[in-house]
Amino acid sequence: MFNSLKGLVVTLVSTMHGLRAPVTRQYPDTGNVLTGRVSEPTPVKDRFMGFPALTWDGEIGEPFCTSCMVCIRQCPTQCMTSVMKDNPLHEEGKSDRRKIVDSFEINLNRCILCGICVEVCNFDAIVMSHEHEMSTFSRNGDRVDLPELLEIGQKFQRETDWIPPTKRVKVQKGEDSETADAAADSESP
Ligand code: SF4
Ligand code: SF4
């Protein structure tokens, strides 16, 4: 008798659990077929590491990347290539960067999202963006070039109120009051 009641309770508890809203989500999310409403993708956290992308220096109007090749040499899967050129804005006296990136390509199909390229870059030029939905049906379908890498990077910069890490260090040392104000704004709720 007692065992029968125990079994009944277990069944009831399982049934109650079945009525709760699911904690998992279907991927890709096709929305609700009855209402035709398509749900928003699950938002990622700021610290989420998606595909690497290049950052844009809005103050000068050029990429941060000088094509110094440090990240390319350190990448464990050798999935990046780049070419540098003389920076025309340096010649005009508008930029401190004597060299600038001319072309850059990452084969994201080979990227293992390790973040080493971001760690070794001395110029705040590359970030682990939030981009992660880039699957394709072809082996080389995810070779992304400089304009696309900058587009993904700028989207990430906007979404996270990105401040170059070297500027953040200056802020922590109290050497950059202008950026300190921006950092305080971006960190306030
Ligand atoms: S992303 Fe950074 S490390 Fe890589 S080539 Fe550009 S400046 Fe150099
Ligand atoms: S995240 Fe890792 S594998 Fe991907 S490009 Fe950077 S260094 Fe290479």
Layout of secondary structure:
Layout: H1 2-19, E1 52-54, E2 56-57, E3 62-63, H2 70-74, E4 80-86, H3 88-91, E5 99-107, H4 116-120, E6 126-128, E7 143-144, H5 146-160, H6 165-172, H7 177-187
Antiparallel strand pairs: 1-6, 2-3, 4-5, 5-7
Helix pairs in contact: 6-7
The protein binds iron/sulfur cluster (SF4) (2 copies).
Anisotropy-based shape = elongated
Question: Low-confidence runs (pLDDT<50, min 5 residues)?
Answer: none
Query: Over all CA atoms, what is the radius of gyration?
Result: 24 Å
Q: Please report the number of helical segments.
A: 7
Query: Approximately how much helix is present in the residues?
Result: 25-40%
The CATH topology of the domain at 52-183 comes to Alpha-Beta Plaits
Query: What structural category characterises the helix and strand content?
Result: alpha+beta
**Whole-Å distance between the termini?**
57 Å
Protein model, in words:
The protein is 35% helix and 15% strand. The protein is α+β, with helices and mostly antiparallel strands and 189 residues long. The model has no long low-confidence stretch (mean pLDDT 87). The structure holds iron/sulfur cluster (2 copies). One iron/sulfur cluster binds at residues 52, 75-77, 79-80, 106, 111-117.
